[in-house]
Amino acid sequence: MEKPRSSKKAGLVEIGSIRVDRSIEQQRGSCWEDCLSSQFPVTSFENVGNLSVFTVGAPHEGYTIETQLENNKMNGESSIISDEEIKVAKLFFQDGIANGPCTLYDSLGKLFFTGRFVNGYRSGRGQEYDTQGNVVFDGFFREGKRMRLYPINEMKGYWKELADDNSDRVLSVSKRDDYGRKEGICFQYDTKGKITRVSEWNEDIEVCLIKQFIGNQMIEYKNGVKRYEGGFVDSLMMNYKRHGNGI
């Protein structure tokens, strides 16, 4: 059935930052690692029933975005359709920016990712799938890319964050909220893997220092007041408890 015709208007609506790339056939999923609004230059749009259908120009000529307009901006549940009429994304826009839950597919329409967008990027907890529909990664994302966060089996709810240099160096151990932000008690380490501080966090912001480590000495605080200084057990599983000489 043909879509009803309507007048086309160019360049009147802000477009959300979301990128689809034809190279997905060669590098499956790499198109979702970035947030590049320039990848979707809107050439025109038309109203088709209750939908607004955006036509996208080069470098992704032929793709369309089906959404709804509110105050001249994309809002609500939306879809991105390839030039071969395959849905490659189901997502939500808020004031023209991709925010909220999403389901992403490859160019063949096979499931690739479930999670959410935050300000146009894949962010927070999400899952990636292979072509058979099996989960190949269940973890956290930051600005479109996988975070090096791994669960600690011995500490339920805690995640170990490794350095971005592909080494096994631990940066921190903490709980995380659905957006991947530090939440609750966090253990932090230096470049040599030595504990440096234990503190409380809320939405990725440190709010209270609990323990500080200098050399072989630990300093404990309560409500900002020093309560102990002395030796300690150098063990995460034992919560770096007091041990040996101390005041």
* Residues in helices, as a percent range: under 10%
Number of strands: 21
Question: Helix/strand-derived class?
Answer: mainly beta
- Biggest sheet overview: 12 strands, antiparallel
Give me the Rg, rounded.
24 Å
Mean of the pLDDT scores? 86
Shape: elongated
Query: Which sequence of SSEs, written as H and E, runs from N to C?
Result: EEEEEEEEEEEEEEEEEEEEE
Explain what the structure shows:
This protein is mainly β and 247 residues long. It contains no helices and 21 strands. It has strands spanning 42-48, 51-56, 64-70, 73-81, 87-94, 97-98, 100-105, 111-118, 121-122, 124-129, 135-142, 145-146, 149-151, 158-162, 170-176, 182-189, 195-202, 205-214, 217-222, 225-232, 242-246. Strands 1, 2, 3, 4, 5, 6, 7, 8, 9, 10, 11 and 12 form a twelve-stranded antiparallel beta sheet that branches. A nine-stranded antiparallel beta sheet has the order 13-14-15-16-17-18-19-20-21, with no helix packed on it. A hairpin with a 2-residue loop joins strand 3 (64-70) and strand 4. The radius of gyration is 24 Å and the shape is elongated. The relative contact order is 0.08. Mean pLDDT is 86; it is low at 1-26.
